[in-house]
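Researcher: Can you fold this with octanoyl-coenzyme A in place?
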Amino acid sequence: MPTAAITGSGVFTPPETITNAELVAAYNAYADRWNAGNADAIAAETIVAKPYSSEDFIVAASGIESRYVMEKAGILDPDRMYPRFRARSDDEPSMMAEIAQDAIAKALAQAGLDGSDVDLVICAASNLERAYPAVAVEIQDLIGAGGFAFDMNVACSSATFGIQLAADMIKSGSVRAAVVVNPEITSGHHEWRDRDCHFIFGDVCTATVLQPATDAKGAHFRVLSTRCATEFSNNIRNNAGFLRRTRDQMEDRRDMQFMQNGRKVFKEVLPLVSQHMADHMADEGLVATDLKRLWLHQANKTMNAYIGKKVLGRDPEPGEQPNILQDYANTSSAGSIIAFSQYSDDLVAGDKGIICSFGAGYSVGSVVVERA
Ligand code: CO8
């Protein structure tokens, strides 16, 4: 059975950034307007005034300093607080497919492949732009790939679950060159008017190329082992979907965008992830000293520091567990892949590491890789 390898990875970074200062100024202006518009009800204590957000809180609670977005003016407009996306005709590439193309081009260039070499495209992301045709099939067409393509969604674990699928298909011989692409336009399903989470997300797209290790043309990482796990929780939820396109959805329901009980997520996901990684390592005969790098999901700096310490049995050295969330914020499934793509070149043959994602579902996915 062939060994699967990651032979390329790429990141599309959107053109616009929003700093914490810009975000907080827009949110606080929105809160002022909302409070002024509801002054009577607030005075009568039938509703509660919206409190201000703060830059200090955001950095201390999450480690996030800035985020990239596809369109910032709409998000920062206090009367709107939502990106302005141009409506596209059916003859134009859809937005997810367009950014996917960019990330895939970078990943294929690294692998030394052309789009026509690809025979599997998995578009794995936390929200899909439409019901059908699958965005992945459009991407397959745009890059000139053969074979087949499909969409999948496991929220923040979409990328690692997609890598497991692609690696398994390569091992079984059903495909020769797979692309797993993660266009995460989180700004379109985020609630920018909710102070408790308005700072969390950013937009990006990542792509990985997987092939049999024997086909690799350059530097690559052998996929030694993968493990996926899920456990139902309502603590991260978004109710938007085709069954909800009724009049009540038009009433601006809060549950039609990202919602979470962040404190509970923090407390429940940490032990789940630490145990998942410990079990995966034990089953692969790996101990902490075997690992050169952890590329973790990028949601929260404290969370990552905790998991790194649990897995390694000590505080991670600088660079051992790279964070990119200060610049990108939480980019859902793409976070661990951005970290992998930007911080893996320096590893040498035989160095091992783990890519690990976690999030809504709950879901956890880990991929043990070795530099060839
Ligand atoms: N400014 C000032 N004060 C604030 C703010 C703010 N912006 N927000 C909250 N506060 C206040 C609260 O009101 C509270 O005040 P009080 O103590 O008086 O009640 C105090 O600060 C503390 O609030 P919290 O308890 O909420 O703060 P935490 O310390 O828990 O930090 C975090 C909040 C950062 C959200 C933290 O809980 C966290 O990181 N949790 C884990 C989150 C996580 O990992 N979620 C995963 C979601 S991603 C995922 O699964 C993908 C989903 C699909 C993608 C969706 C894309 C849109």
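Model: Folded with octanoyl-coenzyme A in place. The pocket of octanoyl-coenzyme A is lined by residues 53-54, 57-58, 61-62, 126, 155-156, 186, 189-190, 195-196, 199, 201, 236, 258, 260, 262-263, 265-266, 299-300, 330, 332, 359-360 (CB under 6 Å).
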